[in-house]
Predict the 3D structure of the following.
Amino acid sequence: MSVMRPPAPLPTAGLTTGAPVLLRAVRAMLGGLMIGLAVLIGTSAPAAAQGLNLIRDTEIEKLLQSYAKPIFDYGGLAPGSVTIHIVQDDSLNAFATQGNNMFIFTGLLLASRNSNELIGVMAHETGHIVGAHFVTFDDSVSAASTESILATLLGVAAGVASKNPDVGMAVMLGGQGTAMRQLLAFSRDQESRADQFALKGLLATHQSPKGLYDFFSRLSGEELLSAAHQDPYIQTHPLTRERMDTVEQAVRTSPYTNAPLDPARELQHRRMVAKLFAFLKPQITTLQKYPDRDNSVEARYARSIAYFRRGQVDKAVPLIDGLIAELPKDPYFWELKGQMLLETGHADDAVAAYRTSVNLLPDAPLNQVSMAHAMVETGNPAYAPEAQNALKVALRADSEDPFAWDLLAKSYLQSDNPGMSSYAAAERALLLNQFEDVIRYTKEAEKLLAKDTPTWYRLEDIRVTAQNELREVIDKRRR
């Protein structure tokens, strides 16, 4: 799971000195939420925005994308136009923001009893995206609350923009939590319309509405609880008797209500839950939930992760090797083995495992980066061409991954190409808003690389951008 990958560090001052570049990324994600954001410049937003982390994991992301695809197609959303983000938090929650971003909390993933429940919630959130039900400020939110809310949302956006899972949004507690719930709360009319979209979409794609009904039923009892004890989903997506009746009616009338669930998909779902549980929960809790007597694929998967997290490699590796023996073409088991080997100091062996994973699943940028990471860690320049090719493939898919640029800079150094190393370091520094470093690296690269090439012109663009941003920061400080 890439949440365990050492991230490229985001400097504490990143949101302050580097606000202009980051704010552009945030605006692209949050759109209308950016009203009044200037109040944050110069504040300690990063300190306020710690608490919730964004998780990256190829297996989970691809599964969620497969869940969403039929509904996205029904809603006329172009392939790849919606980004699904996984937020590490135990709350049963999900929300959508302008820019076609859907945030799903790990608490919701872990609590989902089957794929149909999760698909129902995702269909509802897709209804908000298709209907453009995006949260906006109103006069009831005070200026102080606005600052707190924006610090929180900026933390989420910083995690997205920097690809750094250590940069998250603030925990919704106390007065700030109340303001956050006000901001994210949709009107009951919008909720009803999102329900209607979800139910029509599930019908059109031959899927059961029962999962959505079951999820709502589990939440309905929380309406009677105080806000402090309610799940955030209730507070931001208010349930009503009318909404419940509408979904219940769909359950009674849909020809797909009792359609059997696909066993292969349900195994994938159980694997996702087991993987998340094992990575996020204490080992003893994982071993209680998935005891030795449980020989299912998901249980052995969970136990291998639990042992690995506690450094018990002698127990972890045999379990993952057993799963690989049964399912040798499963890229995610090979990926996990690569992670185990890399993080226990066996970089060469990790390269072989990651290479197998990449060969089995070539369209997974995170796996390409992980393989390159192992290659760089060996210190062997013979791996440099393959590592650089893998990183270029990954960066074509996601050019804003500072960790990939950092690895590329190191790999170029290992292959005795300091000019390209400085160029890659400049790209990384720009993403992290380290403008003085950008200027230094671009000057170094320009001395070593041939002129009038695409890389040369890109260096000029990077340097000019950094100079302009740095000048703007200095001017604001003087004012």
The longest strand covers residues 83-88. The longest helix spans residues 454-478. The chain has a mean pLDDT of 81. The CA atoms of residues 287 and 303 lie 6 Å apart.
